[in-house]
Design brief:
Blueprint (H helix, E strand, L loop, with lengths): L1 H65 L3 H23 L4 H22 L2 H13 L1
């Protein structure tokens, strides 16, 4: 009789303990996922700051070379930041090298189309010359 009792109690206790541990394990997994997400967000914020810094330097150089006014420079800076972020996402993606090349080429095309709207015709052609030199 005692043996039957133990045979029934032991599996019940094992099940009870496993259910008791599951929420703790789930919480630990959730915490780990949250920590990873926070780390990715911080990394993304750092990358964005670097991109903004590079865009600012590029804008200052173009402002001097193309003789841009402050209004045009600020629009140009926003455009450079926007396309830099897009290019970074493409570069960091899991696409094949050919797909990355095609996507980046398309991105450059659309950026140039947008710059045509921002810059005057002489400024745009000067921009293209500067881009080919570097």
């Amino acid at each position: 009789m005692i043996m039957k009792t133990y045979t029934i109690l032991i599996p019940l206790l094992i099940c009870a303990f496993s259910f008791a541990q599951t929420p703790v394990e789930n919480q630990n997994q959730e915490n780990t996922i949250q920590e990873e997400n926070i780390a990715e967000e911080e990394e993304s914020a750092i990358e964005n700051e670097k991109l903004k810094e590079l865009a600012t330097k590029r804008t200052i150089a173009l402002q001097k070379e193309l003789n841009l006014n402050n209004y045009t420079s600020s629009i140009l800076q926003k455009t450079i930041i926007e396309y830099s972020k897009k290019a970074n996402k493409i570069i960091q993606s899991n696409m094949s090298e050919d797909d990355k090349t095609m996507s980046l080429s398309n991105l450059v095309y659309f950026q140039n189309e947008e710059l045509k709207e921002i810059l005057t015709v002489p400024q745009f052609y000067q921009y293209l010359k500067l881009k080919n030199i570097r």
